[in-house]
Amino acid sequence: MQIIEPLLPGRLYHIYNCGINGEDLFREKANYEYFLRLYDLYIEPIAETYAWCLMKNHFHLIVRIKEDEGVERNNIIQTCQEKNLTGGHQCFSNLFNRYAKSFNKMYGRHGSLFERPFKRKMIFNEIYLRTAILYIHNNPVHHSFAENTEDYFWSSYLTCISQGHTKLKREQVIDLFGNVENFKYAHKEKVDIIKIENWLME
Fold first, then answer.
1. Domains along the chain?
2. How far apart are CA 1 and CA 41, in angstroms?
3. Which strand (E) or helix (H) includes residue 140?
4. Which of 47, 127, 51 is nearest to 95 (CA)?
5. Which end of the chain is more exposed for a tag (fewer CB within 10 A), N or C?
């Protein structure tokens, strides 16, 4: 039996996963929008989001699990937080299960949609955090979904360089790079994404 490490309050995590057997998770615009609405419903109350990217058959997130006193209680989230042992894990599972159920109904499919359990890496320092942010935002370019990071809509990159209202921890992300211009410059530099991926996932 595989031991699932809990998501601990106060810690940063790189969370990622893919469709089972490489199956697409998102087939059309409505899928991306629905996933993000569910994310706001299930995850926003228990975690702070630093970066995210949704692609056809996988996704990446960087979140900080809130301390118990910072958790926003509501009826849907309450069951996720009844036991401190879950550390937010159940909230993510509920998100993925609800999305999969709706996806299956929409496209007439059955069975699991996501690989289980979802992957998570604790982030211990700013080097990993900054590198993971660059990796996540460059993923669509690496997989040929866009020519440049700013051309891809389903990631937090555009939110980071905007001035609009957001729940994303934009200020903290930009501070990691010094300022917005350095943030943009870092994302335009050529990176060995395979080498970075191997380092991040090891």
1. 12-201 (3.30.70.1290)
2. 31
3. helix 126-142
4. 47
5. N
Q: Given the DSSP bridges, would you call strands 58-65 and 47-54 parallel, antiparallel or unpaired? A: antiparallel
Instruction: Please say whether the beta carbons of 116 and 93 come within 8 A.
Output: no
Cβ–Cβ < 8 Å for 197, 138: no
Q: Find out whether the peptide bond into 117 is cis, omega within 30 degrees of 0.
A: yes
Q: How far apart are CA 7 and CA 180, in angstroms?
A: 30
- The length of the chain in residues reads 202
**Between vectors from CA 83 to CA 82 and to CA 84, what angle results, nearest 5°?**
120
pTM recorded for the entire structure: 0.88
Block residue for tokens 């870092």? 186
Cα separation of 136 and 74, whole Å? 30
- Is-contact 60 72, C-beta < 8 A? no
- Judge whether residue 77 has pLDDT over 90: no
Residue 141's nearest CA partner among 198, 189, 195 is 189
